[in-house]
Specification:
203 residues, 8 helices
Length: 203
């Protein structure tokens, strides 16, 4: 497997969910309703976050195996992209289920924007999975060319991922951040994200 190609495919794949990176403060706590809302969101974060990180690690690992047969590479990419699609869909559904953060000005729009971005990422990775499924593994040259197209699409998704990160950061402000900082599940996700290796990038 071409190391640069595998790096391109994994680059930008992980969206470290902004809501999982909260830190506490000694100030007076936020509205209990907002704390309850934050618990709904935070409790849903660790599992899909772990799935997304694991999928990215699987793709990055292909870069170290130059002798991987096309069929095995196809299986790894397809499973990883499906896991990413599932992970982002779960995160989007969690925000949809939670609804607008109570008592936050403009919170409904911020919540909708973040959920829409995550849902869009889920759709994009599902489409990449379909593309990988359709690659010709019997012809090494065709397979390599097909993977290059997938890598190009993956770069575009990387930009989409950056946009999703910004949407989540806009949602996670002031009282929302304080409410999430109280949630053990957000702290667990933040710790896992901090200890995870950074995704590979094309260079």
């Amino acid at each position: 497997m071409n190391k640069k190609l595998a790096a391109a495919l994994s680059g930008g794949a992980v969206l470290v969910v902004a809501v999982s990176g909260c830190s506490g403060s000694g100030e007076e706590g936020p509205d209990p309703k907002l704390v309850s809302w934050a618990k709904t969101v935070c409790d849903a974060v660790p599992a899909p976050n772990a799935k997304i990180r694991s999928a990215n690690a699987a793709i990055a690992a292909i870069a170290t195996d130059s002798n991987l047969p096309p069929k095995s590479a196809q299986k790894t990419y397809a499973e990883a992209f499906q896991d990413m699609a599932d992970g982002y869909k779960t995160l989007a559904n969690a925000l949809d289920t939670a609804g607008a953060p109570p008592g936050v000005e403009g919170g409904a729009k911020l919540q909708r924007d973040a959920a829409k971005n995550l849902s869009g990422l889920a759709t994009s990775y599902a489409e990449l999975k379909k593309k990988v499924d359709g690659l010709d593994t019997k012809d090494q040259g065709k397979f390599a060319r097909g993977l290059k197209e997938v890598a190009s699409q993956s770069k575009e998704i990387g930009k989409q991922s950056d946009s999703g990160t910004q949407a989540l950061k806009r949602l996670e402000q002031e009282d929302v951040k304080k409410a999430m900082a109280k949630q053990p599940s957000c702290k667990v996700a933040a710790s896992a994200s901090a200890s995870a290796p950074a995704p590979a990038t094309a260079g």
